[in-house]
Amino acid sequence: MAKQKIIYDCDPGHDDAVALMLAANSPELELLGVTVAAGNQTLDNTARNACHVLQWLGREDVPVYAGCGQPMVRDRVTAGDIHGETGLDGPVFPPLRKTVEREHAVSYLSRALLASEGEITVVTSGPMTNLAMAMRMEPGVVEKIQRIVLMGGSYTNGNVTPAAEFNILADPEAAHVCFTSGRPITMIGLDVTRKVLCYPEIVERMAKADTRASRLFVDLMKHFCKTQKEVFGWEGGPLHDPVTIAFLLDPALVATKPMNVRVDLSRGDSYGRTNCDAFGYLGLPATADVAVDIDAERFWDLIEAGLRRYGGTEADA
Ligand code: RIB
Ligand code: CA
Question: How would residue 317 be classed by pLDDT, with cut points 50, 70 and 90?
């Protein structure tokens, strides 16, 4: 069976890093490229973090493209309270060899999608600035996107304001461009990602894999779970971003419901909220398959299998 081609747009970010681990060596996926934006931290940090993770995993061959350092309209927000000053606080990496490509992420997205036959899935797990800018710069890319699978939003409450989830709130206008693009969308929101909390026993389970990936996973979760406890009081950090990749590996992982989803662009208390019309009140066509439940046990099995696929004990230091 042909591998599913994906471009992964992210803002590493501890959970983005785990999603990268899964995407970078799953037999079912061909990771064509990684594009990064500002989000959890500034662009210089997120770009460097993506390079560190891929180098550690032995996947320096996967190109990393730096994209937008600012949202389309609003002021930039970051999440240092969760991900730290570097955006990937905790792990200590060997000296960095890998560098970002010279081409801008928006240009790469546009070029790769236009050259495709419409077989590329774009996965996003940060602010959707790069993808939205590519759509605006070259409208011809829109029909070439096979599907957008995003981590973001919620049909309940947010995690930065009562209304809004970080990836959407960090660039609501970009999310609006993507949600109104007309392309098939799977929205993996907080409603399901808050059901995969990385409890201490999960970390212990993954540590037993004893691979370079599992060692990085443990170091990442030490920081991520500590800050999630400090900020939200969770006993385990919700492992948001890898749910997007796990969904691609096993679509039955999440239950979804077609809904009309509109991003609130008013500048009030609901700015950045994903208004998901679960009951069709508005009589408008569905614009996304919204995840409403997840098989958490299956998710952790997919994570463990992914970590175990990285042979060897030490990274190519
Ligand atoms: O709200 C959670 C999302 O925001 C995750 O993607 C996390 O990495 C941050 O980007
Ligand atoms: Ca992210």
Answer: very low
pTM score, whole prediction: 0.97
Is 11 among the catalytic positions?
yes
What are the strands of the beta sheet with 120-124, ordered from one edge?
64-66, 29-36, 4-10, 120-124, 145-151, 185-188, 288-294, 254-263, 274-277
Query: What residue owns the CA closest to ligand 1's atom 2?
Result: 166
Ligand 1 touching residue 189 (CB < 6 A): no
> What is the secondary structure of 22-42 as a DSSP string?
HHHS-TTEEEEEEEE-SSSS-
Determine the residue type at 314. Answer: E
Lowest mean pLDDT among 30-34, 157-161, 229-233, 281-285: 229-233
DSSP 85-141: SSSS-S--PPPP-----SS-HHHHHHHHHHHS-S-EEEEE-S-SHHHHHHHHH-GGG
Closest ligand 1 atom, residue 165 Cα:
1
Residues near ligand 2 ion, CB 5 Å cutoff: 11, 13, 16, 125-126, 241
What whole-number distance in Å separates Cα of residue 121 and Cα of residue 29? Answer: 10
